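Why should sequence recovery work at all? Because a backbone constrains its sequence more than one might expect. Tight turns favour small or flexible residues, buried strands favour hydrophobic ones, and helices have their own preferences. The token representation captures these environments compactly. In the example below, the structure is given first.
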């Protein structure tokens, strides 16, 4: 019976160590995901600023184009600039959508890992409670054995 209690206590200790290590790993992964979210948020803000600049530049060039419509060569140059700015605006918009998608995915993953961490912490707490109960039982059985040995020795 004592040996079985020792084995159960050792098993519980190992399980608590494993769960603690797993919690640390998940917390590190969660931190990495949060950093990725921060990075993507910053990138998203930068892209939004770029889009605003491009839209502003696009509007300016359109105004210039309208004002100088009678100048052929200047008009063609402005048309080319306008086309380039429109392509850059489309590319920036595409990058912004991709960044937003990545941000959403990272946010979902972060929530998933937070739930996993919570579940593992709950499991760890249960194992620690079980370990404490087994330690108390072990101490009680050990005392009973010592008392029994003392009684036998007195006979």
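From this structural description, the recovered sequence reads:
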């Amino acid at each position: 019976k004592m040996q079985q209690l020792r084995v159960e206590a050792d098993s519980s200790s190992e399980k608590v160590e494993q769960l603690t290590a797993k919690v640390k790993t998940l917390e590190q992964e969660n931190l990495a995901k949060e950093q990725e979210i921060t990075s993507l948020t910053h990138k998203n803000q930068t892209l939004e600023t770029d889009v605003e600049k491009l839209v502003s530049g696009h509007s300016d060039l359109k105004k210039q184009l309208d004002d100088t419509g009678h100048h052929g060569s200047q008009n063609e140059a402005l048309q080319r600039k306008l086309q380039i700015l429109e392509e850059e605006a489309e590319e920036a918009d595409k990058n912004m959508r991709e960044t937003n998608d990545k941000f959403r995915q990272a946010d979902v993953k972060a929530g998933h890992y937070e739930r996993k961490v919570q579940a593992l912490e709950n499991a760890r707490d249960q194992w620690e409670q079980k370990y404490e109960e087994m330690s108390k039982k072990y101490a009680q059985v050990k005392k009973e054995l010592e008392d029994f040995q003392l009684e036998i020795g007195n006979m």
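A few observations help interpret the result. Residues 71 and 150 are 114 Å apart (CA to CA).
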